[in-house]
């Protein structure tokens, strides 16, 4: 579905009742509107011939007023019905976009900018909504009025006069076509500039502390000023082109009016036309203003809508980076094995993981160590199926990862990412995120295991303290421990800690690790992968894998690795020394 007309067509079919009802009301309005000039023409002729007077005149005027009131109410009613429907299109498009964004993978977000996506969800969808509501109805209204007015002019008044009056109109058609092309270009540009502005605001606000620390506020404000100016210039260009419709309509109608008066005056002179008929003809000509304006307006709304749709639909149709074609709905306990796994990030030369082979038996803990950038986080993300290796296989309980439903796979894994994220909610809610039904006792138990319970009690409202954007700010180590509590509360078979203790002091780290060990022994089958650049986190792991530049360079238990006297052993000595120096 790549055309706006297809989208709107489908939507109109879905809401055919609302569209038909407002269409019918509009037709009512059009008929009543058409009636007025005929009535006025007849009244003028009646007055001129002295056949209309007294009560009859009052009745006629009363009828005119009634028609006016009828037109008013019909107009209000059709707008309500129609916009009620058109706003539904906005709701459904926003929901579609939102749902799509929640399932998109890392590769998608690496290419998209947040501010852009937010602009799409607001500005662009507004434009499409206008095209489905306002534009459809103004188009229908305008076309109906046009046909009826033309019909009455041709058949009801004088066809010669009508033909002459219509002579300038093709020229206006050409002008409209020319202008709408420019509006399309200008609208696309204006939507893009608004996106850029949005991006800037979003990025500035999320990095406001860094900006301030670097003293870049003024530069950032200047950049904002430039972007805002460009966005406003682009909107102005679109508006200028929209305004160009008006003179085109005006010129055309003036020319038509001149021609009408010329020929009409001649016909009246020749007694082939009454003055009343000429009056109602010029009134009809005046009624053509609305259809002409409607045409211009509809064209610009549609061009704006098309420009917005061209930006939006690639997001809605962007293929999911991670296909979810698996059928298995649960992961049975079993070994997790990687065979010759190689992964390279797109547009990156050297692979981040190269020929990784290892096995983790249920109930075991795997330590993953190595210098920053060696591929620890990447490996965990492969296990989560956030990344799909280019070659090699990852199997869990005998099945390749993609044989599982994505949901089932993720439900079997608790992941504490390197950068933990807290939502704007209470601490209790943040911990209970993975298990919304958890009791307070369970939440507190998880917090105790993660060695954050005592810290939480120190906060102003304890577990009810708001954190995140509107609440208090936690230290890095506190954030990490809240994230660990969240993962422990979920209590899944496989726990992945991605340098999740890096900001926690070693004493607390040891306590948390001991708790993890107790948990593991309490229920058979719980496994864990602990990635860390600090070796103290993996000392007790059943198997330790050392990664260097994406390759496995050493494997074994802590003692075996010390004996091998490689990178691990020297790093161990170094970190021990560092720790004892710190303790001094
Ligand atoms: P670690 O967690 O061990 O510090 P990572 O797995 O984060 O290492 O990174 C491994 C390598 O992949 C590094 O060279 C890093 O620059 C690169 N890398 C990590 N994330 C991305 C990404 N999103 N896009 C491109 N390259 C990446
Ligand atoms: Mg990492």
From TrEMBL:
<keyword id="KW-0547">Nucleotide-binding</keyword>
<feature type="domain" description="ABC transporter">
    <location>
        <begin position="336"/>
        <end position="574"/>
    </location>
</feature>
<dbReference type="GO" id="GO:0016887">
    <property type="term" value="F:ATP hydrolysis activity"/>
</dbReference>
<dbReference type="InterPro" id="IPR011527">
    <property type="entry name" value="ABC1_TM_dom"/>
</dbReference>
<keyword id="KW-1003">Cell membrane</keyword>
<dbReference type="InterPro" id="IPR036640">
    <property type="entry name" value="ABC1_TM_sf"/>
</dbReference>
<feature type="transmembrane region" description="Helical">
    <location>
        <begin position="281"/>
        <end position="302"/>
    </location>
</feature>
<keyword id="KW-1133">Transmembrane helix</keyword>
<dbReference type="InterPro" id="IPR039421">
    <property type="entry name" value="Type_1_exporter"/>
</dbReference>
<feature type="transmembrane region" description="Helical">
    <location>
        <begin position="159"/>
        <end position="179"/>
    </location>
</feature>
<feature type="transmembrane region" description="Helical">
    <location>
        <begin position="248"/>
        <end position="269"/>
    </location>
</feature>
<dbReference type="InterPro" id="IPR027417">
    <property type="entry name" value="P-loop_NTPase"/>
</dbReference>
<dbReference type="InterPro" id="IPR017871">
    <property type="entry name" value="ABC_transporter-like_CS"/>
</dbReference>
<keyword id="KW-0812">Transmembrane</keyword>
<keyword id="KW-1278">Translocase</keyword>
<protein>
    <submittedName>
        <fullName>ATP-binding cassette domain-containing protein</fullName>
    </submittedName>
</protein>
<keyword id="KW-0445">Lipid transport</keyword>
<feature type="transmembrane region" description="Helical">
    <location>
        <begin position="56"/>
        <end position="74"/>
    </location>
</feature>
<dbReference type="GO" id="GO:0005524">
    <property type="term" value="F:ATP binding"/>
</dbReference>
<feature type="domain" description="ABC transmembrane type-1">
    <location>
        <begin position="20"/>
        <end position="304"/>
    </location>
</feature>
<feature type="transmembrane region" description="Helical">
    <location>
        <begin position="18"/>
        <end position="36"/>
    </location>
</feature>
<feature type="transmembrane region" description="Helical">
    <location>
        <begin position="135"/>
        <end position="153"/>
    </location>
</feature>
<dbReference type="GO" id="GO:0005886">
    <property type="term" value="C:plasma membrane"/>
</dbReference>
<keyword id="KW-0067">ATP-binding</keyword>
<dbReference type="GO" id="GO:0006869">
    <property type="term" value="P:lipid transport"/>
</dbReference>
<keyword id="KW-0813">Transport</keyword>
<dbReference type="Pfam" id="PF00005">
    <property type="entry name" value="ABC_tran"/>
</dbReference>
<dbReference type="Pfam" id="PF00664">
    <property type="entry name" value="ABC_membrane"/>
</dbReference>
<keyword id="KW-0472">Membrane</keyword>
<dbReference type="InterPro" id="IPR003439">
    <property type="entry name" value="ABC_transporter-like_ATP-bd"/>
</dbReference>
<dbReference type="GO" id="GO:0015421">
    <property type="term" value="F:ABC-type oligopeptide transporter activity"/>
</dbReference>
<dbReference type="InterPro" id="IPR003593">
    <property type="entry name" value="AAA+_ATPase"/>
</dbReference>
